[in-house]
Amino acid sequence: MSLKTRWWSKSRGLPAGAYASLVASLRADGQPVERILSWATTGDGFCIGFPALLSYGNEDGWTHVGWHEIESGGWNSETRRISFRAYDGRRGLIDLAEPARLPELFRERVAASLVVEKFIPVDGNRGVTISGRRDLADAAAPIAWHSTLTRGVTWQTEGIRDLADRALEQVRTEYDIR
Questions:
Q1: d(Cα 100, Cα 57) in Å, to the nearest integer?
Q2: Is 61 in contact with 42 (CB distance < 8 Å)?
Q3: φ and ψ at residue 2, rounded to 5 degrees
Q4: Residues 6+ apart with CB under 8 A from 163
Q5: CB-CB contact of 97 with 40 (8 Å)
Q6: Rounded Cα gap, residues 1 and 39, in angstroms
Q7: Burial level of 10, CB count in 10 A (0-12/13-18/19+)?
Q8: Interatomic CA distance for residues 163 and 120, integer angstroms
Q9: According to the model, what pLDDT value does residue 97 have?
């Protein structure tokens, strides 16, 4: 198979068995089967970047995470690992044998899902970050709003819950995004 054929194929050169199991997993999860933007090998499978989500696994099973679900994360070139924390508490550690474009794609797609982000200070550089994220797979989906605390602040900190709730409503009103 020539490089040109691989580049323009739906699977972008991903082995046939892995691609077939990936597509079946996406469909079973109700996820769109989109074009692959980039993929890389991991220790036991593959990590695949789509326009709306990140998938990783192998023919035995896949995990899918929408870019808009990722609260924080990034690429560590020393460990050759993408790590992330999702808003629902899930964490991911993906060791990449050959990273290809995935580190750049990770940053770009997470940023593309961000509609608005505003820091509300509580004490110096400690505070609450309000963010509105959009699902890149569904343009009609409502904006998902989140309050994230910086280091040194917990939900048990006196008054923080009320501050976060007020800040969230203020940002939503300020940007007129519901």
A1: 17
A2: no
A3: -75, 160
A4: 120, 122, 128
A5: yes
A6: 18
A7: exposed
A8: 9
A9: 93
Which residues have a Cβ under 8 Å from the Cβ of 7 and sit 6 or more positions away? Answer: 13
Per-residue pLDDT of the chain (178 residues; tens, 9 = 90+): 444 444 445 667 899 999 999 999 999 999 989 999 999 999 999 999 999 999 999 999 999 999 999 999 999 999 999 999 999 999 999 999 989 899 999 999 999 999 999 998 888 888 899 999 999 999 888 899 999 988 888 898 888 899 999 999 989 888 766 5
Residue 57's nearest CA partner among 95, 31, 28 is 95
Q: Which of 171, 122, 110 is nearest to 150 (CA)?
A: 122
Place of tokens 């109700």: 30
Q: Residues 86, 70: contact at Cβ < 8 Å?
A: yes
For residue 22, give the H/E element and its range: helix 16-28
In Å, how far from its chain's centre is CA 108? 10
Q: In DSSP terms, which residues pair with 96 in a beta bridge?
A: 42
Quote the CA–CA distance of 18 and 9 in Å, as a whole number. Answer: 14
Residue 148 tokens read as 């994230």
